[in-house]
Write a structure and sequence with these properties.
- The complex is a heterodimer of chains A (297) and B (243).
- Chain A has 297 residues and is an all-alpha fold.
- Helices cover 75% and strands 2% of the residues of chain A.
- Chain A is built from eleven helices and two strands.
- In chain A, strands 1-2 form a two-stranded antiparallel ribbon.
- In chain A, helix 2 runs parallel beside helix 4, helix 9 packs across helix 10 and helix 10 crosses helix 11.
- Chain B is 37% helix and 26% strand.
- Chain B contains nine helices and ten strands.
- Chain B has a six-stranded mixed β-sheet, with helices on both faces. Chain B has a four-stranded antiparallel β-sheet with strand order 2-1-4-5, with helices on one face.
- The chains are: A mainly alpha (297), B alpha/beta (243).
- At the A-B interface, helix 6 and helix 7 of A face helix 2, strand 6 and helix 3 of B.
Amino acid sequence: MFSTELVVQTFISGTMIGVLYALMALGITFIYSIMRMINWAMGEFYMIGSYLQYALVALLLGPDLWWLAIPISAAGVFLFGLVVQWSLLKPIFRKPPEARDDYATVVTLALLLLLRSLATGLAGPNQFSPGSDLPVVMVGPLPMAGARVAAFVFALVALVLFYLLLRYSWYGLALRATSQSRVGVQTAGIDVLGVDRIAFGIGVALAGLAGALLAPVFLVYPTNGLITTVKGFEIVVIGGLGSIPGALIAGVLLGLIESFGAAFIDSAYQNIYGFALVLLILALKPTGLLGERGREA
Amino acid sequence: MSAPLLAVDDIHAAYQSGVDILQGMSLAVPVGGFVLVIGPNGAGKSTLLKTVFGLLSPHRGGISFDGRAIAGLAPHEIKRLGVSYVPQELNTFPHLTVEENLRVGGWTIRNDAARLRARIARVYEIFPVLAERRRDKAGGLSGGQGRMLSVAREMITEPRLMLVDEPTVGLAPNLAEQVYELLQTARQSIPTTILLVDQNVSDALRHAEDVVMMNLGRVKAAGPVVEFGEARVRELIQECLLG
């Protein structure tokens, strides 16, 4: 039979990567729950986060200050998100809501192509690695790559901050209220387009953070956001669109299924196992584990 | 006569360009007044309120609140001037608690914690049932309590003008009467001015002071409520429907 050690190790590494996938899914589902649109360029914000991390470590801060580069990269993506919302999305959302999500789809798809081409044009099709001189860490009796453990810890901190913001701040209250009724927050005197801007910034910053954290593991190149984005959408389908706890649970679930599939079936098909879970969920509970049957804008 | 609190002057507004719902609508609401807007379906009554609150921009004409031009301002800017809007749909956040709903209602005074606390306490005094259910999710309230929360939420900022859109639609008759009392309570306790749109004409007439009858996006008839007896209203509506 399988050794206990292998099962435990697979469980831990699956949970760790799952939390990082969950960051991505959380970004997608959070933007959707506030703005009722899908940001198809999510992977490109991940990509920008990874490039920022690489550039900061390689050119400016040096490898010892990698931990400082991470929040700076995430903040950079947040600021870029504010600009994108202000320049490209706000004009759409100022009009009455007809076909708003269709326009948003076209705009974010165009942005995806633009950003990928820009990355290729500016940095070439090369793969970069910010490297990691973090030592191997012992998690209990098991050795884990330092970069992965650091990424996991950072992701947990980000999730806790995100939760505290939503739960205990005035802005969190406005964000939760907006996800339930856009007209309702307007009657309360809240600038709904301003809420959109913050929500979009936070959502893409989560993707940028994942990009920065995973840069040493999955490397830095123009289309590196693709796989993580696909996983983000898998998680959103599994967990239920618009559900934040659903994104977290499904993220860890996906990480576990991939790890166990790779360890005990065949690692060549690692990216397939998640799709099997998606199909299963679609057959059994099409709204996802914690999704709602239908939501009105 | 003193200057009106709200003056709507010959406004034209549309959801789609070329199809005007409001076609030269005008009305004036005096300070402290209770103005009722009635009219057949599609007359533009709800659109009038949405346009005053800035959810829709008029492409012609002017709106002034307390002497200040407000046409074209965003809803959150109009709210800050002291205008509240209670839409026809139940205007609560179902997954927030009753208290959180009230706090959202106090968004514009959130930096003054003491004032916000006092206002919420006052609302609880007026509507004890909301105080009892303060920790419950708003989605679990009954229809009448939900309506109460919608109005109470708008009372937190003590607005000078409340725009109220068909507050009794879908409610049982005894609840409907409670809603009108709710509005009267708001009007006297704040005190505020009310512009009410209603299809429930006979009940609403008992509470209003002035009446504006709309048809096809403009005024068909207007005057103090005593001029709008049941027979005259029926006659006017017939004229609207038969052209």
